[in-house]
Each structure stands twice: as C-alpha cells, then as structure tokens.
Design a protein that fits this description.
homodimer, mainly alpha, two-stranded antiparallel sheet
C-alpha cells in the first residue's frame, strides 16, 4: 500500500469509528431513558442490568438497525431507536447467560468482570431473563403502530429463539471437544451470530418502511455480515489479546470449541472472512453510495483488532 | 358437615377436576401442535423443551386464560388458545430456571427429575431461554389481529419481566435466611406468582373482547387468586408430601425461605389464604352464575392437597 493510500484508509477508519461511536452514544441514551422509565424494576436486579447493559459495548447490532433505517427512510425514527435498544437488550442477555459457569464460563466481559462474577450466578440468570423479557415489552409498548410492533417482535423472537441464537448456543456447547465439521460450524455461526445480525438489518428495514426487495437485500447483507463477523471473531480469539477484546483471548481453543481456525485452518479462515464480507457488500449494490456506511462497517468488522 | 353436604362437595370437586383436566388436555394439544410446527428448533434443545413442557402440569394458568375468555365471549377462540400456550411456556421457563442449582436447586419437578438433572445445566438454561422467547414468537405470529397481539405481548412481558415475576424471584433469593417481614412477603408473592395469574386472567379477557370494567374485575380476580394460591403453596410446603406435590416438600423451610407460615404462623396463614380467596370470588360478582367455574377454581386452589 502506498503512503497516500495508507493515509486515506486511516482517515476513512477514523471517520467510521467516529460515526459508530455517535450511534453507540444514541443507543446508550435510549437504553438509559428506557431503564429510568421502568420505575418498578426490582432494586437489586436493576443494578445488575445497568452494570451489564451500560458497559462499554461496541453496539454494532444496534448501529445496524439505525443505519438500515436511515438508508431506507433518510433518517432515524422513533421506532428504529426502540428496535435498536431491544436488539441490544437481547444481545446483552445472551452474553450474560453465555458467560455463566455452566455455559462458556467466562469471567471477563466488555472489559470488566462478567455479570455472574460481579453479582453472583442467580442474579446473572435473572438479569438475563429480565433483559430478554424487557426487549419484547418495550417493542410492544413503545411502538405505536401495532402492525410494525408485531413485525419487529416476530423478527426478534425468531432470530433469538430456539430456531436461531439459542439453537446456535446449544450446538456450540454440543460441538465442544468434538472434531467438528464445516457443516456444523456453519450451523453454529449462522444461528448463534448471523441471524441476530440479519434480524438487526431486517428490523431497521421494517422501521424505515422498506419494500420487499430492499428488505431482502438488507437481510442478505445482515446474514453475510454476521457470518464474516463470527469468522473474524474466531480468528481474533487465536490472534487477539484480552485487553483489546474485552473478554478472555484463547478461550475457544482452550475450551475445545469448534471454530473456523480449528476446522479449516487459519489461512482458509482469513480467505473465507474476506469472501463473506464481499458477499455482504455485494448485497448492497442497488442502494448505491447511500449505503457506504454499511460497506464501511463490513470492512471495519473484517479488519478489526478487537 | 352433613353426609349429604359432603357428598355434594365431593361431586362438585369431581366435576371441577374433570373440567380442569379437559382444559389441560386442550392446552397440551395446542402446545404439541405449536412445537411440531416449529421445524427448525435445534434437535437437542427440542428434547429438553418437550420433556419439561409436556410433563404433567396442572395447567392452572392456561385454564384461567381459557375460562376468562369463555366467560366474556361465550366460547374459547383461537387467540385464547395461543395465549394459553404462551402463558404455559413462560410458566415452564420460570420453573426450569428456578430449579437451577444456582437458584432454588430443586432436583424434582412435575413428578420427574428437573430439566437440569435430566439434560444438564447448560441445556436447562437454554431450554428456559428458548421457551420464554417462543412464547412471544407465537403471540406475534399466530394472532392475526395486530392490536390484540401487541396487547397480549405487553401483558405477558410486563407480568413476567423485571417489574413482575423476575422481580419476585430476585426478592425471594435475597430474602433467604433473613427474618423477612409481611411487607417483603407480599412483594415476593405479588410479583413472583400473583402477577402471572393476573396476566392470565387479563389475557383471557383481552382475547374474549372484554370491556374495561370486565377487564378490571378479571385482573382483580387473577391477582387475588394468585396470592391465595401462593399462600396455600407455602402451607403445602410445610404440610404436604413430595409424591403429591410433584416437587420436594419441606424445601422452603430447609432453604430458609421467607414464607407465610415462617413469618405469620400457620394459623394466620390459613386465615389469610381463605380471606384472599374470598376477595377473588367477590371480584366476580357482576358476572353472576356464568363465572361459577372461576369461583370453583378459587375454592379448589385453596383446598388442594398438591
């Protein structure tokens, strides 16, 4: 890469990071407001919920909701803000339960002790349950158009449930310490990660009022983006460092997890991550330059160090 | 009680039991159908879900949904069947998570080993998560009137979430091995149990197309019924036997739980259960004899041996 090209890439990355941070700040504000409006949450529970939900996450999934809505509608509307918060709640619940001793047993998350380390296992189980339920409550209560609310709830429940994220977590646990195959790996990654990315894109599309063709394109983008993200995550688990990751590095290998590097090797994993990212970007073609931020997101997720 | 009166009471009880069994059979059929329609549930997960969901529960909460709809609409409609199934899914999820070692640590549920004993802790966490999510998915997908679907989702999420059932579970855990007070006890029972009973009645009312006054009466009935049920449950934990209960008797006392007998004594607990049941029955006054089945339910829950 020439020096000029390198400088341009660095500038683009810095611009993208600034835009992602702006979206994260927006989502954080919505989450804070929604929690403060919930006056009757148990006082011990709210501490654990705030601790995990307000920890410095990257808010990638909720940014996807906001950017997809912006792409279609030209602006971020109230529904997209609520949908983004709901997606973040479901993502955070999944991290809390995933980190439990009986699950992945991780003590370290978003750069601080995991919920169960800070508040105990029982509180972590309940904080996860609470966030999952709350996500559906805010969608049902805060979105005035009932047809839109039902569509969003349907998308989120399907992506997060037993034929989606929970299925992926289950398969992930079952694949531990087995040889694993590419087929199982694809099943795990599609369900555990990619469906929630796809769901975020779909929810943004619904909030923006997308037509069927736009909706399908954004779903395809989300799915490929999620797959690429997870392959990159597997690679980072091998190459990354804990302080950067905000979670324990080298954990997957240690736990005998089925990952891309363990099944197809590092070189092929990197190629596959690149290919999947390109597929995500290709899905955006009809949107033209208006979708550049989503393209930059795909590239940033591929090249990330954490 | 005279012999004639005793015979009449026995006949009434047998009639009521038969009617409850009929409703349980209906709900079981709906649950089975809904699960068989979900083609993409992970194959290891579906075993654990079926094991717990299809275990012989009494289906009281779902019967409340059906009877309240029947009271208002004169018949059980499609929406009430879906709502009843959703309530049962949420109730079952709460039992699975409640029985976990980090929570109440119960090995025995619905007359068989608890989910985590039969399938391991990780699967139990995920089966609970799956059922909770699935409840919202079926409400969003199977109820055609979006406004009704949103109302039902809103009721269920509010009753089950961090200002409802989860709050009660949290307070219950925190009250362990403390002296406890009547105030804390009421908070736990209202949130942990009564709000889900209230929600079942409210969902039945919504499905039946109740007006505001009917809705409020049924909510009051459900709340009082749930409180009475929980006081009776506390009493049974002291006086009941495990094979009848389908769970471990004497467990609450052993775990240092805050219960009515432990805080106000057995005699006062029995009086309070009776009083609360009478309040539930009083709320049904405007409905006349049409609400007899709900009155019989209140009496049956007070007098139950399991």
């Amino acid at each position: 890469m020439t020096r000029k090209r390198k400088n341009m890439t660095a500038k683009l990355n810095a611009d993208f990071d600034a835009q992602l941070k702006k979206k994260a700040a927006l989502v954080n504000n919505v989450l804070r407001r929604l929690l403060s409006e919930q006056k009757h949450i148990d006082k011990n529970l709210i501490k654990a919920i705030r601790y995990t939900l307000e920890a410095p996450g990257k808010r990638i999934r909720s940014a996807i909701v906001l950017w997809c809505c912006e792409l279609i509608a030209g602006k971020i509307n109230h529904n997209a803000k609520i949908a983004a918060a709901a997606v973040e709640m479901v993502h955070t619940y999944s991290l809390i339960h995933d980190d439990l001793p009986a699950m992945d047993n991780d003590d370290f998350r978003r750069g601080r002790p995991a919920c169960h380390k800070a508040f105990g296992e029982a509180t972590a189980v309940l904080a996860g349950d609470a966030l999952l339920t709350l996500a559906f409550e805010i969608l049902a209560k805060q979105i005035k158009d009932a047809a839109v609310a039902v569509k969003l709830i349907s998308e989120l429940a399907q992506a997060a449930g037993p034929a989606g994220m929970v299925a992926g977590q289950m398969a992930d646990l079952h694949a531990e310490n087995t040889k694993g195959s590419k087929k199982i790996l694809e099943y795990i990654h599609t369900n555990k990660t990619a469906k929630m990315f796809q769901c975020a894109a779909a929810m943004g599309a619904v909030c923006g009022g997308a037509n069927t063709s736009q909706y399908n394109r954004l779903c395809e983008y989300g799915l490929r983006l999620g797959l690429g993200f997870q392959i990159a995550d597997d690679i980072l688990d091998v190459c990354g460092k804990s302080p950067h990751l905000g979670k324990t590095a080298g954990k997957d290998a240690k736990a005998g997890k089925t990952t891309y590097p363990s099944v197809v090797g590092m070189k092929k994993s990197k190629l596959l991550a690149k290919k999947t990212t390109n597929q995500a970007i290709a899905a955006l073609k009809p949107f033209g330059p208006k979708a550049d931020i989503l393209r930059n997101l795909a590239t940033a997720l591929l090249e990330r160090k954490k």
